[in-house]
Design goal:
The chain is an alpha+beta fold. It contains four helices and twelve strands; from the N terminus they run αβββββαβααββββββ. The protein starts with 8 loop residues before the first helix and ends in a 6-residue tail after the last strand.
Length: about 170
Amino acid sequence: MRASAPVDADAFKQSLRSIATSVAVVTTRAGSLRAGLTATSVCSVSAEPPTMLACINREASAEAIVARSDRFAINFLTEAQHGIARLFSQPRLDADRRFAEGTWITLATGAPVLQGAAAIFDCEVQQRLPAGTHILYIGRVVAVDGLHADTLLYRNGLFRRLVQVG
């Protein structure tokens, strides 16, 4: 079989933009330092044991704190929390400003979790896998919470919401 030409990064990103995904804020804490970022590259890995995956860019300020603390929380946002998604997507915004909106508490690991989120998964890092520009963090879920409400979606550069059809 002949090797195919590499896929252009911009074409890859453009194709990904067409897929609607849930919006989450991945948070962490190391001592008094809190950090977080808006992410769409998060998913479940296994139910036995409960395990989640978060893909974090090596350049994100939160990545070094996740690496140091070995903990993270995935907060899936509700449709009403789009402002929090915007705050955590701004790379140069300091942590105090990011965490100023919403009510932040802790569960088992001490990573900040957002009260009123659709679903929360509080995780201890089990494995790190470097992959291109990102680190894939696999975390064992040690606590869950949430409202089980409709989640905020992201597609083609815009936040979206679910609409029931039929």
